[in-house]
Write a structure and sequence with these properties.
Layout lengths: L10 E5 L3 H12 L3 E5 L3 H9 L15 E6 L12 H8 L4 E2 L1 H12 L5 E5 L4 H14 L3 E6 L15 E6 L2 H5 L8 E4 L7 H4 L2 H13 L3 E5 L3 H12 L4 E4 L8 E4 L3 E6 L3 E6 L9 H16 L4 H9 L9 E6 L2 E5 L6 H10 L3 E6 L17 E7 L3 H8 L5 E5 L1 H15 L3 E5 L12 H13 L5 E2 L6
Parallel strand pairs: 1-2, 1-3, 3-4, 5-7, 5-8, 6-7, 8-9, 9-10, 15-19, 16-17, 16-19, 17-18
Antiparallel strand pairs: 11-12, 12-13, 14-15, 14-20
Helix pairs in contact: 5-10, 5-11, 14-15
Keywords: ATP-binding, Cell cycle, Cell division, Cell shape, Cell wall biogenesis/degradation, Cytoplasm, Ligase, Nucleotide-binding, Peptidoglycan synthesis, Signal
Function: Cell wall formation. Catalyzes the addition of glutamate to the nucleotide precursor UDP-N-acetylmuramoyl-L-alanine (UMA).
Pathway: Cell wall biogenesis; peptidoglycan biosynthesis
C-alpha cells in the first residue's frame, strides 16, 4: 500500500467504495487523513464501515471542512451531468481528484525520480502496460504494475528512487489527475469512445492529451488524426515527442514494416525488433503496442538485447488473442475480449485460415463491417442470441453452422480443422457481449480454454495458465 500522507490531518470526502475506492480510502487513512466515505450502494458503505473507515451520507456533510473530494473514476465528473457530490464540492470550492492524482502527489513528495510510465489510448492500453512491465522485469527492475489494468494504484509498493511504475490510465482517471507528471507518457490512439462521459470527441481527446502534455517524454501513436494533431502541437511547444506507427516506417520514431519494428530515435541509434515469431504480439494492433514499449524502454535506458528478450518472452494477456493450445497444425486462440466487430477485426486480420467461433449478445451493426475478412474463414460456428443474424450476414458464401453453445462449437471446429489437415486456427473472437450465456467475457474465455483443454491431443501453450 502507498500511504497517502499529502492529506495527513486533513478532512477528506470520498465517494465510491468499489475496489479502487475502498483501496483509496485505506491509503488515505493509513496516511493520516480524516476520511468520510460514502457510496450509493449500502453494502459497500457497510463493508467500509466494518473496516473502521468513517462513513456518512455526504449530502448532509459540512463541506467547508473538506480539503478534497476523492472521486472514484466510474462516477460522472462532467457528463451526462456531474454527480451530486461533484456539485457540492464545486459549490464549496473543494478540489475533485482521484487515486492517480493521489499517487502522483505521493511520488512527487517521496521519490520524484522514481520512473513512472503512464499509458492511455482508446485501444491497446492493457497489453502495452503489461508488455512494458514484463520487459522491465526481464531487465531486473523493481517494477510495479497497476491502474486501470485491474490493480488499484494505491495498493502498489510505496515510491522509492529505483522503483519503476507502469500505470494504465483511463480517460476517467486522467480527468481526475490534474498534476500527473509521468517520466514517459504514452498515447496510443484515439477514436470515439466514452462520449457519454466526456460530451464530445474534442473533450475526450483533450483529456487524453493531458497525460502526454505533462510528461518528461511523450510517446504518441500517429496513425489516427487526433493523435497526430496532439503530437504536432506538443512539438511546436518544444516538448520531447517520439512518434510510433503500426502502419509505416518513420524517419524519427518507431515504425512497423509488416514484420519488424524499426527504431530510428535520434540519440539512440537504429535498431530492428522482429515480431514474426512472437504469437502474443501477432497483428498490426499489437505492433503498435510493441512500438510503444520499444520507444518507452529505450527512453528509460533499457538495452536493445533486453528489450528483444522481453518482447520474445511476453506471454500476452488472457482473453486477448491468447494462444491456449495446439493440436498438430491447429492453433487454438482465445480472443473473448473482442465484444464487438471492431474488436474482432484485428484477430481476423492476423490469421489466414480460420475456424471462427462467434456470437453471443449482439451489438449494433452486427458483423457486417467484417466482410473484408470473410475470405479467411474456413467455417463459422455461431453461438448465442446473435447466431441467426450472423448466419444471415454470412449468407451462402461462407460455410457455417449454428452450434448454439460454446462447448459444441469448440468440439466441431476442432474436428473440422483437424480433418482439413492444414495450418489453421480455431478462433474464439465473438464480436458480441457475453451476457446471454456467460457472466462476462472472462468467464467465456475461461470456458473456451477449458473446452480446448478437454480435447484429445491438445498441447497447452505457455498462455493457458494466466
Amino acid at each position: 500500500m502507498i500511504p497517502v500522507r499529502s492529506f495527513a490531518g486533513a478532512s477528506v470526502a470520498l465517494f465510491g467504495l468499489g475496489g479502487s475506492g475502498l483501496a483509496t480510502a485505506r491509503a488515505l487513512v493509513a496516511g493520516g487523513a480524516k476520511v468520510t466515505a460514502y457510496d450509493d450502494n449500502p453494502a459497500s458503505v457497510d463493508k467500509a464501515g466494518a473496516e473502521g473507515i468513517a462513513t456518512a451520507d455526504l449530502r448532509s456533510a459540512d463541506w467547508t471542512r473538506y480539503a478534497a473530494l476523492v472521486l472514484s473514476p466510474g462516477v460522472p465528473l462532467t457528463h451526462p451531468k456531474p454527480h451530486w457530490t461533484v456539485d457540492l464540492a464545486r459549490l464549496h470550492q473543494v478540489p475533485v481528484i482521484g487515486d492517480i492524482e493521489l499517487f502522483s502527489r505521493e511520488r512527487r513528495a517521496e521519490a520524484p525520480g522514481a520512473p513512472f510510465v503512464a499509458i492511455t489510448g482508446t485501444n491497446g492500453k492493457s497489453t502495452t502496460t503489461a508488455l512494458i512491465a514484463h520487459c522491465l522485469k526481464v531487465a531486473g527492475k523493481d517494477t510495479q504494475l497497476g491502474g486501470n489494468i485491474g490493480v488499484a494504484v494505491l495498493t502498489l509498493d510505496p515510491p522509492a528512487p529505483e522503483r519503476h511504475y507502469v500505470v494504465e490510465c483511463s480517460s476517467y482517471q486522467i480527468d481526475l489527475a490534474p498534476t500527473i507528471e509521468p517520466t514517459v507518457g504514452i498515447l496510443l490512439n484515439l477514436s470515439p469512445d466514452h462520449l457519454d462521459r466526456h460530451g464530445t470527441m474534442g473533450n475526450y481527446a483533450a483529456i487524453k492529451a493531458r497525460l502526454v502534455a505533462n510528461a518528461q517524454a511523450a510517446v504518441i501513436g500517429v496513425d489516427t488524426a487526433p493523435c497526430r494533431e496532439i503530437a504536432n502541437g506538443l512539438e511546436s511547444d518544444g516538448a520531447a515527442v517520439t512518434r510510433i506507427s503500426q502502419a509505416d516506417i518513420l524517419d524519427r520514431g518507431v515504425g512497423f514494416d509488416g514484420k519488424s519494428l524499426q527504431r530510428r530515435m535520434p540519440g539512440y541509434g537504429e535498431a530492428s525488433f522482429d515480431l514474426t515469431a512472437i504469437g502474443s504480439l501477432r497483428g498490426r494492433h499489437n505492433a503498435q503496442n510493441a512500438a510503444a514499449a520499444v520507444a518507452s524502454l529505450t527512453l528509460l535506458g533499457v538495452d536493445d538485447a533486453t528489450i528483444a528478450r522481453g518482447l520474445a518472452t511476453f506471454p500476452g494477456l488472457a482473453h486477448r488473442m491468447e494462444e491456449v493450445g495446439r493440436a498438430g497444425r491447429v492453433l487454438f486462440v482465445n480472443d473473448s475480449k473482442a465484444t464487438n466487430a471492431d474488436a474482432a477485426a484485428p484477430a481476423l486480420a492476423a490469421f489466414q485460415r480460420i475456424y471462427w467461433i462467434a456470437g453471443g449478445l449482439p451489438k449494433e451493426g452486427g458483423i457486417a463491417s467484417l466482410r473484408p475478412f470473410f475470405p479467411r474463414l474456413a467455417k463459422a460456428y455461431l453461438i448465442g442470441e446473435a447466431a441467426p443474424a450472423f448466419a444471415a450476414t454470412l449468407g451462402e458464401r461462407i460455410p457455417y453452422e449454428i452450434s448454439g453453445t460454446l462447448d459444441i462449437a469448440v468440439e466441431h471446429a476442432a474436428a473440422d480443422a483437424k480433418a482439413a489437415g492444414e495450418d489453421a486456427v480455431v478462433l474464439l473472437s465473438p464480436a458480441c457481449a457475453s451476457f446471454d450465456q456467460f457472466r462476462n467475457f472472462e468467464v467465456r474465455g475461461d470456458a473456451f480454454r477449458a473446452a480446448v483443454a478437454a480435447l484429445p491431443d491438445v498441447e497447452a501453450t505457455r498462455g493457458d495458465s494466466r
